[in-house]
Design goal:
Elements lengths: L1 E4 L8 H14 L4 E5 L5 H7 L13 H7 L16 E2 L5 E4 L4 H11 L5 H9 L5 E5 L6 H9 L2 E6 L3 H20 L5 E7 L7 H12 L13 H9 L3 H4 L4 H23 L1
Parallel strand pairs: 1-5, 1-6, 2-4, 2-5, 6-7
Antiparallel strand pairs: 3-4
Helix pairs in contact: 1-2, 1-11, 3-4, 5-6
């Protein structure tokens, strides 16, 4: 199962959702890989902390290394598993980001390496039960590569009018990519994030999205200082605060997604 978390708008919680869902799966015994395609490397920092540049030559390791070996006459002769790092959490693995991603993007796009991530992930299927992909907040080479490689996409939504407007462009882009590159890709759901039940606007926006037919998931994530603590401590919530209310909400979201996955597999 390859799940990409994507929105063209920044600050909607992509990294938090990616890493916390992945960590929950790992804590429940699923061998889980996170691929960090965002040049900012927030998922990388969240799961393994700061990386020393001398310790981490991008041409040899991480997702930049995976892509870089495909440029020019070189073929993807290294096993994709060699670009994966262990984290300190059992069953949770990371293919880390690097600033080099920004440097090689134009060359990869010019050479049409858009399917290389899909090919690499296909080779990793036997190694991992779940693969999560964190993406940059724009519809660029890396996010397109992720959507082509994925089975499903989760779209974080932060209950903002601008976020609602961006959903129209986002869904149009995904539909075009489905038609041209990945007809099996599904929008698994809109994940409501930073929801404030006491305010009027969030409830109205969610109701309008549902009325327009957007696949809004029924578990709403709220804002909490505990998430900022989780980022600071570099520990996903299930490890930092397993009984916290927000952790329990993430557990419910993960359970809903797993239930939907089982239903889709049974229907095949």
């Amino acid at each position: 199962m390859h799940r990409v978390v994507f929105n063209q708008k920044g600050g909607v919680g992509k990294t938090s959702i990616t890493c916390n869902l992945a960590a929950i799966g790992a804590s429940q015994g699923l061998r889980t890989l996170v691929i960090d395609l965002d040049v900012q490397g927030n998922s990388t920092h969240y799961l393994v902390g700061e990386i020393d540049a001398e310790q981490f030559p991008a041409e040899a390791q991480g997702v930049a290394g995976l892509f870089k070996q495909t440029v020019g006459p070189r073929k993807m002769n290294k096993n994709p598993e060699s670009f994966v790092w262990e984290t300190s959490f059992e069953n949770l693995y990371l293919m880390p980001s690097s600033p080099t991603l920004g440097q090689i993007e134009k060359e990869l796009e010019a050479r049409y390496k858009i399917y290389k991530l899909r090919d690499a992930i296909a080779k990793l299927d036997d190694e991992y039960d779940r693969i999560y992909i964190d993406t940059p907040p724009n519809f660029n080479f890396y996010s397109k590569s992720a959507l082509i490689a994925a089975d499903s996409v989760l779209v974080p939504f932060d209950c903002d009018s601008f976020a609602r407007n961006s959903l129209y462009d986002l869904t149009a882009n995904i539909e075009e990519l489905q038609e041209d590159h990945n007809p099996d890709l599904i929008i698994e759901g809109i994940v409501i994030n930073q929801f404030n039940a006491q305010a009027r606007l969030p409830g109205e926006l969610v109701a309008e999205l549902k009325a327009e037919g957007f696949p809004v998931l029924d578990t709403y994530l709220t804002s909490s200082v505990k998430m900022r603590e989780s980022h600071h401590e570099m520990k996903p919530l299930v490890y930092l605060a397993p009984t916290h209310k927000l952790t329990q909400t993430y557990l419910d979201l993960h359970a809903r997604l797993e239930k939907g996955l089982k239903k889709r597999r049974k229907g095949r």
